[in-house]
Amino acid sequence: MNSTGSNNAAEAFERLHGVAPTGVWSAPGRVNLIGEHTDYNDGFVLPFAIPQRTWVAAAPREDGVLTLASGSAAVPPLRLADLEPGSPRDWTAYPAGVAWVLRQQGITGGADLVITGDVPHGSGLSSSHSLEVATALALLGLAETEASTGDVAKWVQQAENDFVGAPTGLLDQTASLCCTEAHVLFLDVRTGRQEQVPFDASRHGLEVLVIDTRVSHELVGSGYAERRAGCEEAARLRNVPAVRDLDTEAGLPERLRPLVRHVITENERVLKTVALLREDRYEEIGPLLSASHASLRDDYRVSCAELDVAAQAAEDAGALGARMIGGGFGGSAIALVPAGIRPDVERCVAEAFARHGFAAPRMFTAIPAAGAGRDR
Ligand code: ADP
Ligand code: MG
């Protein structure tokens, strides 16, 4: 655990409230190695937790009030009993939404929460779910209530779907809750089956380079809900519970076929990636990452110019493969890069961004880190 991060959160709490917090909980952001837009189709995903986290320093209150502070942004206290979807609408909707869901589970006590974190916002690295998961663990911890990770994941999904209003699946919060150091999490979203697959790129002389395009997917009006609705329609038309159950897009209306083709081929790519990792054939994952990007760009149509330039420039500079991650329309890409040429890849990506007149991207090597938990 990152003790500096939890100390900072505890100190921020003490500065604001004049006493030490009861505890500090934290949850990481995530990178999804492969398996994009498959989670809400009951499919396969393969995320790992990144070292960047959100910390929640917390203490209970007796008056049914929730106070929230993040950085310098302290907001007016919220009465738990008054919370309803649609209010509030700013960043506080994420922690408030979690409190709203947990209240329905009988967690009715109020709390003071002070939030710190270093997961970039809107970068497709899931700062929102790290905030929601850390909040959920803090509120459950204060109430001394045990819950399974499956239940916490479901409650966080309810907060994000029903309170925040984002129709997201189970990938991000499950990754934040269940990932472990030095592993990718192979998750079958339909069955909930999980397997921790060892993932040590450095042992193979490789690095996973994250390229944050700094295009906030939040700001560009996401077509996420539209894609999701298209998949649900395809499943309905073919009389199956989810696109997971289809093995061809044939016979579907023209406009739905590329969506379904992406989900079918992406699920296959996840399974192939897991098989390659188990056999220590890391380099062969590269082409699967690139095929995933092409599928998201051409079939699912959720990429954008910056993500395409990032993936292409990384490959041109010698990356074994590269792809956009997250919902799309901005956010981050990853590239599988031989460690020796990482500086060259970074330079080429930066130069390509400058040539296109894009803002400078932010880049870092992502090493699988620990999942969520109580820090102190
Ligand atoms: P992503 O999850 O990819 O980072 P989202 O748009 O889903 O992007 O979530 C980003 C939003 O989450 C931010 O705009 C902010 O409202 C909220 N958020 C995340 N982390 C924090 C934090 N530490 N403090 C306050 N708000 C946060
Ligand atoms: Mg998010």
Describe what this molecule looks like in 3D.
The chain has 376 residues and is an alpha+beta fold. The chain folds into two domains: 3-193 and 370-374, Ribosomal Protein S5, domain 2 (2-Layer Sandwich); 200-366, GHMP kinase, C-terminal domain (Alpha-Beta Plaits, 2-Layer Sandwich). It is built from ten helices and 14 strands. The chain has helices at 3-17, 93-104, 127-142, 149-164, 171-178, 224-237, 257-278, 285-298, 305-316, 342-355, and strands at 23-32, 44-45, 47-61, 65-70, 73-74, 78-79, 110-117, 183-188, 194-198, 206-212, 321-324, 332-338, 362-365, 373-374. The strands form three sheets. Strands 1, 3, 4, 5, 6, 7 and 14 form a seven-stranded mixed beta sheet that branches. The chain has a four-stranded antiparallel beta sheet with strand order 11-12-10-13. A three-stranded antiparallel beta sheet has the order 2-8-9, with helices on both faces. Strand 8 (183-188) and strand 9 form a beta hairpin. The chain is globular. The model has no long low-confidence stretch (mean pLDDT 95). Bound molecules: adenosine-5'-diphosphate and magnesium ion. Adenosine-5'-diphosphate is lined by residues 54, 70, 91, 94, 115, 117, 121-128, 131, 218, 326, 331.
